[in-house]
Amino acid sequence: MIDKTIEQLVMERIDRPGWVSTRGILMDPAGDLNSEEHRRAEEVMKDLAQRGLVTLWRLVLQDTEEELLAAARPGFELDRDLEDRGAWARAVKYDPNE
Q: Looking at residues 51-72, what average pLDDT do you find?
């Protein structure tokens, strides 16, 4: 998958429902793809955040405590959205300096 395609997918997906995780971009719901694919998707998301096009969040899966990077529309409160829906994960704003 080329980076431009990942960028386009992120921008399309944050329009509706407002956010997308690396697994959503890679169509990898079980996390079966290799870490290189996920790393590439994260790099594209980080670049979009640096350009002010998205806000980054860490999704923490409730069952496994696994963390995924997610991109959201600027101003979208992913933490509240997930909490209000009783979702399978909680969201914490991503600090690129961590």
A: 93
Tokens, residue 39: 């790393």
Whether the model clears a pTM of 0.85, i.e. scores above it, the answer is yes
Instruction: Give 84-89 contacts, CB < 8 A, sequence gap 24+.
Output: 88/61, 88/62, 88/63, 89/59, 89/60, 89/61, 89/62
Q: For residue 66, give the 3-state DSSP assignment.
A: coil
**Token pair in block for residue 96:** 């690129």
Identity of the residue numbered 71:
A
Beta-bridge partners for 90: 60
Q: Can you tell me the distance from the alpha carbon of 69 to that of 80, in angstroms, rounded to the nearest whole number?
A: 17
Residue 1 has what pLDDT? Answer: 46
Considering the chain, what is the average pLDDT of its residues?
A: 89
